[in-house]
Write a structure and sequence with these properties.
mainly beta, five-stranded antiparallel sheet, 1 helix, binds dTDP-4-keto-6-deoxyglucose
């Protein structure tokens, strides 16, 4: 499985840094929703699901965390997000787990669709069966 990162350009000057995110420019879909995960407790593992149609880009804008991605054939573990200019593109039908959140982690997620619980598959065996 190819892990797809998006490197955002940092507009820096003597005052500090700024990154601009623009749909269909540096994000490969229309952004319908933005959410962020923060204040994650120690040793918590989140995710454990796939999405049938949703595409997302995850950016750790502060701190760090790790992802496991699984396309039903291959698992890639220990994908580190620790830079505000590094986005992880997660396309549809990819199982994801997030873990090793630093105390200060703020994980920003840009999503191609509104929240819809019926788009989730939260059972791993059902996820594998859906490819058959
Ligand atoms: C994903 C990973 C990276 C909402 O009401 N609206 C929303 O937009 C979202 C994302 C969640 N929720 C509710 C649903 C649950 O009651 O917030 C609660 C926590 O959501 P969940 O358990 O799905 O959180 P994670 O961290 O396991 O997964 C989230 C996203 O749901 C998911 O799409 O890819 O982050």
């Amino acid at each position: 499985m190819k892990i797809k990162f998006i490197n955002f350009e940092i507009k820096g000057d003597e005052r500090g840094s700024l990154i601009a995110i623009e749909e269909l420019k540096n994000i490969p879909f229309e952004i319908k929703r933005v959410y962020y995960i923060f204040n994650t407790k120690p040793n918590v593992r989140r995710g454990f699901h796939t999405h049938k149609n949703l595409k997302q880009v995850a950016i750790c804008v502060k701190g760090s965390c790790k992802f496991l991605l699984d396309d039903g054939k291959e698992r890639v573990d220990e994908i580190v997000l620790n830079k505000p200019n590094k986005g992880l593109l997660i396309e549809e039908m990819i199982w994801r787990e997030m873990y090793d959140f630093s105390e200060d982690c703020v994980l920003l997620v840009l999503a191609s669709e509104f929240y819809d619980e019926s788009d989730y598959i939260r059972d791993y065996d059902e996820f594998l069966r859906s490819f058959k």
